[in-house]
Design brief:
- The structure holds two protein chains of two kinds.
- Chain A has helices spanning 5-12, 65-78, 83-87, 91-98, 105-128, 130-139, and strands spanning 27-34, 39-48, 53-62.
- Chain A is of the alpha+beta class.
- In chain A, strand 2 and strand 3 form a beta hairpin.
- Chain A has six helices and three strands, in the order αβββααααα.
- By secondary structure, chain B is an alpha/beta fold.
- Chain B has 14 helices and 13 strands.
- Chain B has helices spanning 18-24, 26-29, 41-61, 74-88, 104-115, 133-139, 162-172, 246-261, 263-284, 311-317, 338-342, 347-350, 364-383, 386-392; strands spanning 6-7, 68-71, 95-99, 119-123, 144-148, 175-179, 198-202, 213-217, 288-291, 301-306, 321-322, 324-325, 353-357.
- Chain B has a seven-stranded mixed beta sheet with strand order 2-8-7-6-5-3-4, with helices on both faces. In chain B, strands 9-10-13-12 form a four-stranded antiparallel beta sheet, with helices on one face.
- In chain B, helix 9 packs parallel to helix 13 (364-383).
- The chains are: A alpha+beta, B alpha/beta.
- Chain A binds chain B through residues 3, 8, 11, 14, 17, 19, 31-42, 60-65, 67-68, 103, 106, 110, and chain B through 308-313, 316-317, 327-329, 334, 336, 346-348, 351, 383-389, 397, 402-405.
């Protein structure tokens, strides 16, 4: 199957590959997919608790080129968005931007799932660790 | 100079040998007669060329020329062997034995026969992809009419103990068919010594043209009979009607002759290059696994799983190399390879598998290039893989509750 220029660009020069410390209270981690299905994405966001803006994002992906490109694109789009705006990212926008063929649409769905999972994780953590966060703010 | 892309998918198809093409060409424009035309020189020349090709092919497998039935390829040969025997020997029995890792054309022909009231046993294989003669013996019943076991597997290159299985079939009086498509020119074949009654070949897997194959049908001890699946002018002893494609047959014959005459040298060279590739990759990269039997395997074949890296993703990284993957993403069914599954290879490692097939035209320089590229890309993709990071951190990936999707 021929790949689009956009997929190849992200595959060859993936943006924001890496990891944040998942224990950090301002980091949200989403791990979706399964090795036996051939795709696993881990997407992480670092949120500024005062502004609610996603200041940084990183990913690591086990999967085909389209899965790698979808997660790379997702990290690019997440940066600078508020958590609420990030929730609005739709898999169809990823499909369009990367010109994913129909058999690869599931890669974009997985990327959307990873975004939501990372945000959910951040929200749960920030709720649970509100005290820690407040202390951090006072110290700052 | 290295010419890209490098072709390492020789189990899928092969480049037609230029000597084969040269032999074929006059039969398009000069000697274009119909081999069935008995009354003019055009027909005679065509028939003589077909007869010579039959001899060349028969010589490769230890058969006689009259036992070679031309078909459109091995898919047709395998269909004809299974369905033709099943229909002809229906009164004798309705049981067929085959193996879980056979080519789809054998498995799907078997499934059709099951729908038509036959009973089929699909023997399981061991972790190396092998079935034993004892398994075949234990599966034979008084209703068994045919055993079909491939000589060597297309995905993993594992070679089956054909002579031992042939011996069991002879003892039990059951016909024995083997799909020898991958084996021809790579393993010495002797239909008599191996007790083979029917054998399928395809020209394009042995540097001949696509669209031509044959079925060897034994003529004595026993004389095997078949119900044809294509009716018509009664060509090929009535087993396969249709005007013979003379240029293709000439090419097939030439390809068989080259394979026979250059056998020792070619097996030694492809084996050396494959081992260089396999060792170069596996010694440089930890957690890589060779799928299939370590020694009982085709000289040019290496099917390797790269843990933590997905096969299709890797193929994109090594786009200057033509290979195949057992990854679901590369198959129409979106299922990982059923052959690797039959070996008990986990789905995650099946997704991570790449099949390398070294052939006649590969060079040392190509092997060095591919080795370096694969090592570089697997390393790059592992750095990008969350599974690799987790494994490095000592997390047991099996302990995680993955959400299958």
């Amino acid at each position: 199957m021929p790949y689009s220029e956009q997929i190849l660009e992200h595959y060859n020069n993936p943006r924001n590959v890496g990891s944040f410390d998942a224990k950090d209270p301002f980091i949200g981690t989403g791990l979706v997919g399964a090795p036996e299905c051939g795709d696993v994405m881990r997407l992480q966001i670092r949120v500024n608790p005062e502004t609610g803006i996603i200041e940084d994002a990183k990913f690591k992906t086990f999967g085909c080129g389209s899965a790698i490109a979808s997660s790379s694109l997702a990290t690019e789009w997440l940066k600078g968005k508020t958590v609420e705006e990030a929730m609005e990212i739709k898999n169809t926008e990823i499909v369009e931007e990367l010109a994913l063929p129909p058999v690869k649409v599931h890669c974009s769905v997985l990327a959307e799932d990873a975004i939501r999972a990372a945000i959910k994780n951040y929200q749960e953590k920030s709720g649970l660790t509100a005290e820690v966060r407040d202390e951090t703010l006072v110290l700052a | 100079m290295l010419k890209l892309p490098v072709y390492l998918d020789n189990n899928s198809t092969t480049r037609t040998d230029p000597r084969v093409v040269e032999a074929m060409l006059p039969f398009f424009t000069d000697h274009y007669g119909n081999a069935s035309s008995r009354n003019h020189p055009f027909g005679w020349e065509a028939e003589a060329a077909v007869d010579e090709a039959r001899e060349q092919i028969a010589a490769l497998i230890g058969a006689t020329a009259k036992e070679i039935i031309f078909t459109s390829g091995a898919t047709e040969s395998n269909n004809l062997a299974l369905k033709g025997v099943a229909a002809m020997y229906r009164k004798k029995g309705n049981h067929i034995i085959t193996v879980a890792t056979e080519h789809k054309c054998v498995l799907d022909s078997s499934k059709r026969l099951e729908r038509d009231g036959y009973s089929v046993t699909y023997l399981p294989v061991d972790a190396d992809g092998r079935v034993s003669a004892e398994q075949v013996r234990a599966a034979i019943t008084d209703k068994t009419i045919l055993v079909s076991v491939m000589m060597a597997n297309n995905e993993i290159g594992t070679i089956q103990p054909i002579a031992a299985i042939g011996k069991v079939c002879k003892e039990k009086g059951v016909l024995f068919h083997t799909d020898a498509v991958q084996a021809a020119g790579k393993i010495k074949i002797d239909v008599i010594a191996m007790g083979i009654d029917l054998l399928s070949l395809s020209a394009h897997k042995m540097y001949g043209p696509k669209g031509i194959g044959c079925l060897y049908v034994r003529k004595k001890d026993p004389r095997v009979r078949l119900e044809p699946i294509i009716d018509g002018g009664g060509h090929e002893r009535g087993m396969r009607s249709g005007t013979l494609p003379v240029p293709m047959i000439v090419g097939f014959g030439k390809a068989a002759e080259i394979s026979r005459l250059e056998f020792d040298e070619e097996v030694a060279r492809t084996f050396r290059l494959r081992e260089k590739l396999r060792k170069g990759i596996m010694e440089a990269l930890p957690e890589t696994y060779l799928n299939g039997h370590p020694t009982e395997r085709l000289p040019g074949s290496a099917n390797i799983s790269f843990a933590y890296v997905e096969g299709e993703g890797l193929m994109m990284g090594i786009k200057d190399v033509a290979v195949s993957s057992g990854s679901a993403c590369t198959s129409a069914s979106l299922e990982p390879s059923y052959v690797l599954r039959a070996l008990g290879v986990g789905d995650e490692l099946a997704h991570s598998s790449i099949r390398f097939g070294v052939g006649r035209f590969n060079t040392e320089e190509e092997i060095d290039f591919v080795t370096k590229l694969v090592v570089k890309e697997v390393s790059r993709l592992r750095e990008m893989s969350p599974l690799y990071e987790m494994a490095q951190a000592g997390i047991d990936l099996k302990s995680i509750a993955w959400a299958a999707h």
